[in-house]
Amino acid sequence: MMSLSFNERVVSESLSPLVLVIYIQHIYKLSLLYIYMAGGTKKISAASARSHTRKSKQTTSLNLSPIMIVQVGVALLAGLLGWAYVAIKPPPPKVCGTPGGPPVTSPRVQLSDGRHLAYKEKGVPKEEAKYKIIVIHGFDSSKDLDLAVSQEFIEELGIYFLLFDRAGYGESDPHPKRSVKGEALDIQELADKLDIGSKFYLIGFSMGAYPVWSCLKYIPHRLSGASLVVPFVHYWWPHFPADISKKGIKTLPARDRWTFRVAHYAPWLFNWWMTQKWFPNLSIMTGNMAVFCDPDLEMLKILSSTPSVGQEKIQQQGVYESLYRDILVGYSKWDFGPLDIANPFPNNEGSIHIWQGREDRIIPSLMNRYIAEKLPWIRYHEVPDAGHLMMFNSTVCEPILRELFLG
Length: 407
Hints:
By secondary structure, this protein is of the alpha/beta class.
């Protein structure tokens, strides 16, 4: 059983059924005391009683005593708090390899904290590779991400790929204490466990870009270079101009703006927000195709025509520990912003790239463009007639890798 983080224990304990019962009992006792002090035991004269009886016979309306009103109110409150407890509390994960959980079918490494990360190796053997790169998947994806590169291209450049399931995805253990910094530490430990060398390249797609920012901040000495492809942006990054962030978030549908606000300002409410049916939430999870541009829609047709390997494993440990927690970590309160990061290659011994689709409706280009303007050591590439799914196009993916290794 995974241990709860401090914040989760606080929420769980404060909303536990026992605490709710005690809370309701206190309300009930206080209400009765109030009625008593307000005159609940006041004596009534015989004349008044007879007058009240005559009036009662003349009316058929339902008269509830103050005590009954309190009892009904307490019952309603108990029901409301019980519903809130169920709605807010995330369900427990089905951890791979545990009783009742999915089986472990992929190779995994065990980290220093006892968790496991599942991984997949592709390309040429790492002992023969000229370039070793760790691939970081995005939202609702996994290590089974199908890179749009040919075998000829891989062999020409001598590339070794290491893909892995981020915490809670696929067959990697959930991590209740998951954080932005923890993403970089997981990557570093994975590289060490598999002995791929003191330095390696990184490529992160979409939501998988925030671990790249984390690596640039916390383990820059381990990097040979990195590419952030259609990268995630945070609308509340520290030291990022509020007006730019405001313009960026306004490009999103209202339902997405509210989803990200709940994740950032009220993470304890996020499970309820994503499961309730009263208000629309995240477009990409509710089938709102308006968030995809024409190039993305064409790519979706192509992708749907071929079977996706491992798709059924992505959320198998629970949607909360995979998708929801990914959003919560991404939009949590960071200790830094991209503008705080120093150039990891002052002597031009490596390079950092941002690749943005000009037609992308999911990630606002103006924010990534601003980052590149303020950090001139980042090479910014804006691809015309391309959207958020451009990494699945070999005419885009192969040049991205070639530029990273040879550019």
